[in-house]
Amino acid sequence: MDNKKKCKNTLSKRLKKNRRRKKLVRSLVLVILIGIGVNIYNHKASIKVDSNQYEASNEYNYETEKFEDKINSENISNSPVENLKTDVDKFEKVDITNENKGVPVLCYHSIGYDESGKSPLIVSPQKFKEHMKALKDNGYTALTISELEDYLVNDKPIPVKSILITFDDGYKDNYTNAFPILKELNMNATIFVVSSLINGETSMTSQQIKEMSDYGIDIESHTVSHKRLSEMSYNEQLEELSKSKKEIEEITGKSVIAAAYPEGMYNDDTKSAVENAGYKMGFTIEHGYADRDDNFSMLNRICIDYTFNWNNINYIINNIKK
User: Fold this and answer.
1) Start-to-end C-alpha separation, the chain
2) How high is the mean pLDDT in each 10-residue block of the chain (322 residues)?
3) Does residue 81 belong to any structural domain of this protein?
4) Where is it localised (predicted)?
5) Count of other CB atoms within 10 angstroms of residue 45
6) Do 291 and 225 belong to one domain?
7) Which of 6, 37, 85, 212 could form a disulfide with 217 if both were Cys (CB 3.0 to 4.6 A apart)?
8) HSE of 11 in the Cβ direction (CA atoms, 13 Å)?
9) Count of structural domains, the chain
10) What letter would DSSP give residue 178?
């Protein structure tokens, strides 16, 4: 009996201790919960006071996402997601003109390294960046091909110091070397690609072309085969120009409105072939400005090679016959 009483007493004491512990634990939990509640309330109050801008920002991003989804769903080709500044942004802080002053059109080819030293048309990325940065620092605005067309054909005003940056052939290094520089400086450019060489060993891929086009770089035609148009009949030229236009448009989803003639060569049939193939402009490599007095199928350009520095370019574009 004594053992039973002892066991009961021991059990009773343990139960009392457990009850006290439970009460203590419940009290501690209650204190902690009250503290957490106060902190949460204060945090929410802080967000409410401080974060109107944050909430507005979230709402804006949501609307932006919906807008981008709408672009994708409707296949609006001329509205790239992460693109260059709009025409309004480019023109709003510069002097503009409607005078027929003409526009210098620079013609580059490869932006890379010539280990052989035998190709003057390969300009190093460092030199190309020097050219682009100097143009920007000296107040030049790089136009899109459509902005040039509007100026030449539709008499629309452009910045007083306007320029068109072009590349011929569609080399892969236009994507790997030139494109990052253009993006860094937020500059437009136009690339004339040879459609039969797309996806070739030294040429841009269709995916790279699409990416650049979506960003805001204009992709135009340098014919199908890069053969001299001057040595072709009218029908052969029409085929070269029409097929190239169609193939590029299938990649970019945008209208191709300009062609550059391989080696700058053309003949009496070229003007008709270019117009009948659906182009608005054609470019040679004859030295001079592109202006409204030109035949729009025979626009001038200034070829740039590896020997040019900024002083050379600056002298030429300010002293060339307009």
Assistant:
1) 124
2) 42 46 49 42 34 29 31 37 60 90 97 86 97 97 98 95 98 99 98 98 98 99 98 98 99 98 96 97 96 94 95 91 61
3) no
4) Secreted
5) 10
6) yes
7) 212
8) 6
9) 2
10) I
Q: Tell me the two tokens of residue 111.
A: 């932006």
Residue 33's identity, in one-letter code, is: L
Q: How far apart are CA 107 and CA 96, in angstroms?
A: 24
**Which structural domain range is residue 28 located in?**
2-74
Where does a domain end: 74, 101, 130? 74
CB 295 within 8 Å of CB 262: no
- State the maximum Cα–Cα separation within the chain, in Å, rounded to a whole number: 129
Q: Please, what's the b/e burial string for 14-30 (b: 16 or more CB within 10 A of its CB; e: otherwise)?
A: eeeeeeeeeeeeeeeee
From 221, 294, 320, 201, select the one nearest 262 (Cα to Cα): 221
Q: Specify whether 91 is located in the same domain as 70.
A: no
Residue 58 structure tokens: 């979230």
State the Cα–Cα distance between residues 142 and 200, nearest whole angstrom. Answer: 29
3-class SS of residue 39: helix
Are residues 170 and 311 located together in one domain of the fold? yes
Vertex 296, ends 280 and 271: CA angle to 5°?
80
Same domain? For 171 and 198 the reply is yes
The answer on 54 and 136 residing in a single domain is: no
Amino acid at 249: E
68 CA to centre of own chain: 16
pLDDT for 313: 95
Whether residue 82 lies inside any domain: the answer is no
Q: Which two tokens stand for residue 62?
A: 């949501």
Task: Check whether residue 186 and residue 301 sit in a common domain.
Answer: yes
Indicate the pTM of the whole model. 0.74
Residue 173 belongs to some domain of the structure = yes
Pick the closest to residue 279 from 251, 236, 252, 249 (CA basis).
Answer: 249
Domain finish residue from 74, 101, 121 = 74
